[in-house]
Amino acid sequence: MIILGLNAYHADSSAAIFKNGVLIAATEEERFRRIKHWAGFPSEAIKFCLTEAGVTLREVDHICIGRDLKAKFWKKVQFVLTNVHKKNTLLSDRIKNSKKVASIESELVAVSDLSESEIKPKIINVEHHRSHLASAFFASPFDEAAILSIDGSGDFTTTMVATGKGNQITVIDSVDFPVSAGLFYTAFTQYLGFPHYGDEYKVMGLAPYGNPIYIEQIRKVLHFESDGLFSWDANYFASATEIKLDYSTNVPVISTLYGGKIEEIFGPPRKAGEELTQKHKDIAASVQRVCEELILHILNHLQKRTGLKNLCLAGGVAQNSVANGKIIELTGFENLYIPSAGHDAGISMGSALYAYNHLLKKERAPAIYSAYTGSKFSNEEIETLLKERNIKFEHLEDDLLFDRIVDKLIEPGVVGWFNGRAEFGPRALGARSIIADPRNPKAKDLLNAKIKRRESFRPFAPSILKEFTGEYFEKVEDVPFMEKVFPIRKEKREFIPAVTHVDGTGRLQTVMKEVSPRYHALIDRFREKTGVPILLNTSFNENEPIVNTPAEALDCFLRTNMDMLVLENCVIER
Q: Residues 413-450: pLDDT tens digits?
């Protein structure tokens, strides 16, 4: 059975394809369009997935869309009637977007030889948050688990709690739009002068530079309920009917979410580009702390209610790696799984898994620990490109190649590393990465000067050989997708300053030999030469989506001051 899953007409549009429940390919549309968070129809991602699976759309049994216009229908009607006398930008935007979703058959015609009447019977609509739940639980190693999906909004829901057992998911409860942990965090992200969709991670990176002295004021924004969920004080936010979610240019744009009370309590908002003051840093620290408290409030109630020890987590707020790193320590859960694409791109994967496992009641496939489901290029294809571009290169076998790379890193140098299949999700995990020496205290400045040109407060991540995690970090958990932040042992921080954040933590990736054999071997060679089983790892891009092809990697190399580019076994040096 072949199932194609889609996240369409929503931020981070994507496609994923499964054969008999096994993931064959998954990728975001932004990797092809070269526009971050692309929010249109994922036509290129669909073509890629079909090619990788060796099928046409005619051979696909089911096409799953991670959107169900019928979900919470009467709640939506009640919302409209309650606000009928108000200006309703939100309603008009949602109607426009719903029309696009409803006409998805015509878009699929353009990437197939099928008619709309042939496509329509294949389509299964899966509610947004049920797709998130499925992307986490059905990909996890757990036969039974509690599940939390938490984000900005989707299908009129912002938070959903559930349990999973075998091939079934049972929803326990949910929170309705507009009350939202994601919108709460985004409102303060905007207030702090980061206006673009997806900028929330900047606040998370800024938070350790501040003190949470505004925590009492920010706690008043949210109301933690006795049932384990939450509500909020609407006076701190823009009117729900005037929220504008604009995908018309395929670039997601969200209107200003913070209301007058935030300005009244905290003063005028920071304008984009203005100096970051200590007050801004303190507000960021306070927002992050309250967000963590909210997540832990929900999860502690969920654990007590279900009695379960395993937890699966998904949704945009599940990308808050600082909060994720505290869950096992501060709740009754003992095991945690978060997929590589916990954000909205994972909707494509989740909708397909929900249909296959929950609706069709098929047996689950093995757990997913690899995010390498994207594009791949052979040495022959790469060499052809380099020759066409008159680029001087060497072809080295792995043993010599790893020595050459490590020597360059120690020099110190910055290396672009293009290896195997691209990752599915927002993190570079050793397939499309820029790497550097974590021992170099100037590596962060070096990277920002040569390539990234990003805010100085944003940290770089450590990729560590899994078997050495306990030697360098205070906690030991599997973190295959760089989805948790842990404290680095105090005695080790001076040895890896480039990946140690200001608060002594690191957002780690535990690299497993069986999942990432080549990246593992490279890090191990670095360990042999330096004694440190870690590489500094950041995404291979320069203010753009992560590079997807050798040509994009080469262009990034040529327009920056990167010292070495490695495309599979081809090496280019300045």
A: 999 999 999 999 999 999 999 999 999 999 988 898 88
Backbone angles phi, psi at 386, to 5 degrees: -65, -40
Q: The domain 2-134+347-359: what is its CATH number?
A: 3.30.420
Bridge partners of 440?
none
DSSP state of 441: T
For tokens 């919470």, name the residue. Answer: 72
- Is 379-573 in the same CATH topology as 2-134+347-359? no
Q: How far is the C-alpha of 30 from the C-alpha of 546, rounded, in Å?
A: 9
Average pLDDT over residues 321-327: 98
Strands 484-487 and 570-573: unpaired
The token duo for 153 is 């909004």
Task: Give the integer Cα–Cα distance in Å for 411 and 139.
Answer: 41
pLDDT digits (tens, 9 = 90+) for 149-190: 999 999 999 999 999 999 999 999 999 999 999 999 999 999
Question: What are the C-alpha distances in Å from 266 to residues 275, 281, 286, 379?
Answer: 16, 13, 12, 56
Single-letter residue type at 555: D
- The reported pLDDT for the residue numbered 85 is 63
- State pLDDT tens for residues 258-284: 999 999 999 999 998 899 999 999 999
Report, as an integer, the average pLDDT of 486-509. 98
List, in order, residues 6 or more apart from 513 with CB less than 8 Å away.
466, 520, 521
Q: Is the pLDDT of residue 94 over 60?
A: no
- Superfamily (CATH) of domain 379-573: Carbamoyltransferase, C-terminal domain (3.90.870.20)
Strands, E assignment, 186-291: 222-224, 230-232, 245-246, 253-254
| Backbone phi and psi for residue 525, each to the nearest 5 degrees, phi listed first | -65, -40
Q: What are phi and psi of 217, to 5 degrees?
A: -65, -40
What pLDDT, on the 0 to 100 scale, is given for residue 537? Answer: 98
* Sequence ranges of the domains in the chain: 2-134+347-359, 152-341, 379-573
| Residue given tokens 């499309």 in the structure block | 432
- Answer for the pair 572, 558: CB distance below 8 angstroms, yes or no: no
The encoded tokens of residue 365 equal 């496939």
Alpha-helix runs per DSSP H in 413-564: 443-447, 469-472, 490-493, 517-530, 550-559
**Whole-number Å distance between alpha carbons of 59 and 55:** 6
Question: Is residue 553 within 8 Å of 571, Cβ to Cβ?
Answer: no
Residue 103: CB atoms within 10 Å: 13
Reading the block at residue 73, the tokens are 């229908």
Tens-digit pLDDT profile for residues 400-416: 999 999 999 999 999 99
DSSP alpha helix (H) spans, 333-457: 346-353, 379-388, 398-410, 443-447
Phi first, then psi: give them for residue 563, nearest 5 degrees: -85, -30
Lowest mean per-residue pLDDT among 69-83, 84-98, 510-524? 84-98
Q: Report H helices in 83-171.
A: 89-102, 104-109, 116-119, 128-137
Strands (E), 275-333: 310-314
Does the structure show a pLDDT above 90 at 101?
no
CATH of domain 152-341: 3.30.420.40
Q: How far apart are CA 227 and CA 401, in angstroms?
A: 57
